[in-house]
Design a protein that fits this description.
mainly alpha, 2 helices, globular
Length: about 50
């Protein structure tokens, strides 16, 4: 499960879970270009928790 306030960032992170780069997903690339969110994984504060 992934959650966040930036839908582009959530999708960008989700891409990595499937071994993809965020830019390989058209919706992430277009959303980032339209400034609807960020696909820059280096700027994200990713926290992993185990349930």
């Amino acid at each position: 499960m992934a959650a966040g306030v930036d839908p582009v960032a959530v999708d960008a992170f989700g891409a990595t879970l499937f071994g993809m780069k965020p830019a390989e997903l058209g919706c992430v690339r277009v959303g980032h270009q339209a400034r609807l969110g960020s696909m820059d994984l280096g700027r994200m504060n990713i926290k992993r928790i185990r349930l």
